[in-house]
Design brief:
alpha+beta; Beta-lactamase; 5-stranded antiparallel beta sheet; 4-stranded antiparallel beta sheet; 34% helix
Length: 406
């Protein structure tokens, strides 16, 4: 029944497996999908994360810290922001490990999971880094086809793992939301029989698999394939993330989500169940499809901030992953209007705010400032006008207070 409504609401993007707030005037998704609805309507079984027996504490800031001038101003700013952009569903501010403010709007509440689009790419990077440090991946400069021979037919396999992480495989020219153009479209809309432009719904409906997209029938219909040699330039592609996830699955003997579960999720010690979408073969849709409650998104972000400070292999990886590894500039235009750099599946060099960022379609953001140890998390169902820039400037004002710096 949901298919009678979803087609007209998912705007002109065809698929929602990826995208940041690139140079589009507006991005929008049905609110019900962003509070767990995609998992509910998917015809393929998602990977389910179980809550930890001893959840990581995520305490609220004491009254004194909540009343610090910068924190008070930030909370006031959030009130103004959500009034201006009512499509905002949830926001959280974390200051040095303590929750300063949580706010829900619309259909969102503390009990409903918040679905992420391309924030999942940054989670995939965490799993890749752990596999590297566990010795499952020989080197970040290992050629991908050495570990996943099926990818040897295209630039995904000719790339190194580093080149996949920096979105520089050159495997295709992105046509829409980080996805390629498929000759004749892909899959079929159940109600009309017409093809989709992107692979989000065809995967969700069990019509195609991730393997089809990376090296199978769907790959053979990709236009502008192998557009330039690996490593030459940044180009936002969901396929690079899916290929990196295939590497983790191959070397670990489990799905990307399964490996993320034991390598990351168990360490973040989430308090409630979560989920990650998969295709009909159980392969994780690594470029999108994760959902957790807001508090557990906060636990993940706080864990990343702490793990990044460790003087060990994974800490070294995280510091590199969240620092600029490649410029997003292209001749004559920007690949992203607000970020000049990209790390390993994390956005960097924000033109308006500090820190590193996980970014998802229709206004999803996790911003982390290592210097002040402040975190902003925001989920929404639409993005338009100045909503992204206003959010970044809000974060910048909060982090720039000299009184709050440790």
């Amino acid at each position: 029944m949901f298919l009678k409504r979803e087609i007209s609401t998912l705007v002109a993007v065809g698929s929602l497996l990826s995208l940041t707030d690139t140079a589009v005037a507006e991005t929008r998704v049905q609110e019900r999908f962003m509070v767990g609805g995609f998992i509910d309507v998917s015809r393929t079984p998602a990977y389910i994360f179980k809550p930890h027996a001893m959840p990581r504490p995520l305490p609220k800031a004491c009254a004194a810290r909540r009343n610090e001038a910068a924190n008070r101003r930030a909370v006031q700013d959030i009130g103004g922001y959500t009034d201006r952009y009512p499509e905002t569903l949830a926001m959280m501010l974390i200051d040095r490990g303590k929750v300063v403010h949580t706010e829900y709007r619309g259909a969102a509440n503390a009990e409903r999971p918040l679905y992420s689009m391309s924030i999942a790419k940054s989670l995939t990077s965490l799993a890749v880094g752990h596999a590297l440090c566990a010795g499952l991946i020989p080197s970040i400069d290992t050629r991908v086809s050495d570990l996943v021979p099926e990818l040897g037919i295209n630039n995904f396999g000719r790339s190194t793992i580093r080149e996949l992480l920096t979105m520089s495989s050159g495997a295709y020219v992105s046509a829409i939301v980080g996805q390629p153009a498929f000759s004749g479209g892909i899959g079929r809309r159940p109600r009309t029989g017409k093809p989709y432009k992107g692979f989000g719904w065809p995967v969700r409906l069990g019509q195609v698999t991730v393997a089809d997209i990376l090296w199978g029938d769907a790959w053979r219909r990709i236009e502008n394939a192998d557009a330039h040699p690996p490593g030459r330039a940044f180009g936002y592609r969901a396929g690079d993330t899916l290929s990196a996830a295939m590497v983790v699955a191959r070397v670990s003997g489990t799905s990307l989500a399964g490996y993320f579960d034991r390598a990351v999720w168990q360490k973040t010690r989430g308090a409630w169940p979560g989920a990650w979408e998969a295709d009909r073969d159980g392969v994780t849709v690594a470029s999108s499809g994760t959902q957790f409650r807001l508090a557990d998104w906060g636990r993940i972000a706080a864990w990343v901030l702490t793990a990044r400070t460790a003087r060990d292999c994974f800490g070294d990886y995280l510091r590199a992953a969240t620092s600029t590894q490649i410029s997003t500039q292209r001749p004559g235009r920007w690949a992203h209007p607000h970020f000049a750099g990209y790390g390993y599946q994390w956005w960097t060099d924000n033109r308006h705010a500090p820190g590193f960022w996980a970014v998802g379609y229709a206004g999803q953001y996790i911003g982390v400032d290592p210097k002040t140890r402040k975190i902003l998390i925001k989920f929404g169902s639409a993005q338009h006008g100045r909503s992204a820039r206003d959010l970044f400037e809000l974060f910048a004002r909060w982090t720039q207070s000299t009184k709050d710096k440790p």
